Amino acid sequence: MDNFRDRVEFETSEVESVYQVQGVPFPVGVRFLDILVTGPFGSGKTTMVETIGGWSGEGYVDLGRVNWWRNRLLFFKPREIHFGIPFVGNAEPVAGDWPNKPVDESRIRLPGPKTRFYHTDWRARFVFDVQIPSAETIYARRRERAARGTHPVDANFSFDSIEAEVSAYTAVALHLHKNGFRVFVRSTIMGQPNVFKHQVI
């Protein structure tokens, strides 16, 4: 069991006021056109984006890259994105074959705060909807997909790598929240949204 993820789940609270988009609950006050759906492979990103009628095709965002928030793919929302994540001891960002290492938060690039009226408030421009089911749920789902042969990414995976990916996405979600991005997480596929209780830095 992923103790880090369990601890973070304990430190979230369920959103009380929601509205429905094609049966999927979203926090009141979150604009549908601001949503970026992310999370581990097999967490339900594609299913959710297709259900709510978002843009097809997964985008890729390297969080260690300068100005990743200006990527044109992020202008077309809601859509599914996959993160390239920097890890301690890895020179390049990881987007697969997840290592059992801490996320290197110091290498995650962040836009500066809005200081002038005419500047873009990048931290308010996106809403990250992070799908983080349990590693057990994802493992079972990916085994079913592997048997059908529908997703090339399922050709080679392990429970340990899925646990590492779940931990990485949880750490990134919390880091983005603490730094002023709008983030909510779901512990079940298209389930009830939760928000972190942690104070924004």
Give your account of this protein's structure.
27% of the residues lie in helices and 21% in strands. It has helices at 3-10, 45-52, 122-125, 135-148, 159-178, and strands at 12-14, 18-21, 24-27, 35-38, 55-62, 79-84, 127-131, 182-186, 194-196. Strands 5-6-4-7-8 form a five-stranded parallel sheet, with helices on both faces. It has a two-stranded antiparallel sheet with strand order 1-9. Strand 2 and strand 3 (24-27) form a beta hairpin. The longest helix has 20 residues, at 159-178. The radius of gyration is 16 Å and the shape is globular.
Reported for the largest beta sheet, the result is: 5 strands, parallel
CATH class: Alpha Beta
Structural class, from helix and strand content? alpha/beta
Query: Mean pLDDT score, rounded?
Result: 91
The tally of helices reads 5
Overall tally of structural domains: 1
- End-to-end C-alpha gap: 29 Å
Beta-strand residue percentage: 15-25%
CATH topology tier name: Rossmann fold
What is the β-strand count?
A: 9
Low-confidence regions: none
Strand order of the largest sheet: 5-6-4-7-8
**What integer value in Å does the Rg equal?**
16 Å
Helix content: 25-40%
Short structural summary:
The chain is an alpha/beta fold and about 200 residues long. Helix content is about 25%, strand content about 20%. It has helices at about 5-10, 45-50, 120-125, 135-150, 160-180, and strands at about 10-15, 20, 25, 35-40, 55-60, 80-85, 125-130, 180-185, 195.
